[in-house]
Amino acid sequence: GLASSLKDTLRKIVNAPHIDAALIKEVVKEIQRALLLADINAALALRLTKEIERRALTEKPPAGMSSRDHVVRIVYEELVRILGETREISLKKHVIMMVGLYGQGKTTTAGKLALYFKKRGLRVGLVAGDVHRPAAYDQLTQLGARIGVPVHGEPGETRAPKMVREGMEKFDGYDIIIIDTSGRHSLEDDLVEEMKRIANVAQPDEKFLVIDAVMGQTAGPQARAFHEAITLTGVIITKMDGTAKAGGALSAVQATKAPVVFIGTGEHIDELEKFNPPGFISRLLG
Amino acid sequence: RRLSESRVGELLDELEIALLESDVALPAVEAIKKRVKQDLVDRKVRLGTDVPDMVEEALKDAITAVLAEPVVLPPKARRHPSRFEPPFFSEFVDRHDKPVVLMFVGINGTGKTTTIAKIGHMLMKQGYSIVIAAGDTFRAGAIQQLEKHADQLGVKLIRHEAGSDPASVAYDAIEHARARRRDVVLVDTAGRMQTDTGLMEEMSKIERVANPSLVIYVGDALAGNDAVNEAMAFNRAVGVDAVVLTKVDADAKGGAALSIRYATGAPVIFVGTGQEYKDLEAFSPRWMVDRIFG
Ligand SMILES: Nc1nc2c(ncn2[C@@H]2O[C@H](COP(=O)(O)OP(=O)(O)OP(=O)(O)O)[C@@H](O)[C@H]2O)c(=O)[nH]1
Ligand SMILES: Nc1nc2c(ncn2[C@@H]2O[C@H](COP(=O)(O)OP(=O)(O)OP(=O)(O)O)[C@@H](O)[C@H]2O)c(=O)[nH]1
Ligand SMILES: [Mg+2]
Ligand SMILES: [Mg+2]
Fold first, then answer.
1. If you count DSSP H runs as helices and E runs as strands, how many of each does chain A have, helices first?
2. Three-state DSSP class for B186?
3. What is the pLDDT of residues A26-53, one digit of tens each?
4. How does DSSP assign A113-175, residue by residue?
5. Best residue in B226, B236, B275, B292 to probe A by mutation, most A CBs within 10 Å?
């Protein structure tokens, strides 16, 4: 039957007496399925599959390595190549802007980041730049209150850039300023414009795309559109505590070349973890 | 001439990419391919027929048929053994004892609370009286979010303190509606991952206490293959009767509709097409097929 994961697929190679082109072609088709099942963007999955096939057919396994391990290693290397270099988030003074589609976890993650920096002795301010979603201000204020971090916002204000400018002034001299923004998608011109204006006002050092592990094929194209609007510096993948493989988020990294900096592993304010590429990839290939 | 299995299989493999690119989950794709194969293999074909076109039309028809099939018996038949087909809201509310209780469930961030406000707005326009139960007592700002919606709609909100038992909020809202002869109670619940057994058990308890007329699963059109795992788990826990697919305006083709129908057997009744109250439309299978095949 259909291999539900890469690990199942590669088991086929173990039982084969020797690896020939026909077997590679068969396995490669199954690898493509496993990548699509993990929500890797279809165009990316196709490109990856072609490269894996080329390498499996032309490269000789290193001495002492089995053919199976060789193919596994190629798949692994091609995926790690997409993730690029991981980077540490500096603890020096800087401004962070959170962006992304609707309901991805931006506001929750803004609270998590505030706690992360506060625990490391930094003075943090949160700015409620989402003037659209009902009670977005209340949500961020409650999160700030839980961890003793001030929140700037005005419940009735409808102009996000103005709110952000006031927040920047209020928290002038703080070590870290984190700006929450409302959910949006690339086809909403007025919201994309708003996001650009907020970036102009705040001049953030970091612009993080918050994307959940569940997102499918639209993740790559949407991430590219956000990147074209405000040049992203990092990606945060939320909801890694579910069963979703986060291939959409990987496609977003590939589309923007912005590295994953953190992952969210639950709803609680301390459930933010550093990104661990090998663990992520083996979970993706499941 | 007869259509061979290998020819049909080949053509379906090509069409499969369009489905996968539209976020139809792989298990749902396999199921629909099998259905088309059974239909087409060995069928007589007149000379000159455009076979690829014929296979594509057969696939479109199969998808439409699966999505449009009337649902005869929902998972927990005790709720309402009769057939229901969208658009059924006003018929459904008219036919049932009052108050009709609608419970909204789903993973985190899919659009449950916003969809409650939209459905409340729609039902009020149709002349029904509404009560909303603030059953998300966990997430920061969740109660205030519903307060804002209830104020804008001019509807009574039953709320308890943050951290209180969601089932008791649902119970109080239903009692309030019964006492004041309100037509419909909309029960919000907190988002939850289907892997969190404690939260899934909490949801089952809310369902037992609220004894809803319908459990409405709110799924996100942007979701990929995981839509199947999620919907299956919610269906196992509380029995999904109907589905609302949100955020179809955000560039999503909407293949998750087929995934969720495959996973639960429940019909998609509405799609969310934006963040305003008016942005709720009856789901049409043909609409989705046209989006996927362009
Ligand atoms: N299980 C889980 N839930 C999460 C995680 N991160 C966020 N959430 C939940 O996802 C839902 C949406 O989170 P928000 O922070 O409101 O998302 P948002 O992107 O700010 O949403 P909008 O502002 O409406 O676009 C909430 O129920 C959060 O508790 C996570 O890592 N795991
Ligand atoms: N574009 C668009 N946005 C939507 C739609 N439905 C909901 N949203 C947005 O999605 C985000 C999440 O919506 P909520 O209603 O808070 O979602 P929820 O499921 O109640 O979230 P939790 O309670 O945190 O699990 C908000 O920013 C909504 O405005 C829709 O159909 N289209
Ligand atoms: Mg938010
Ligand atoms: Mg909600």
1. 11, 8
2. strand
3. 888 888 888 998 999 999 999 999 999 9
4. HHHHHHHTT--EEEEEE--SSTTHHHHHHHHHHHHT--EE--TT---HHHHHHHHHHHTTT-S
5. B226
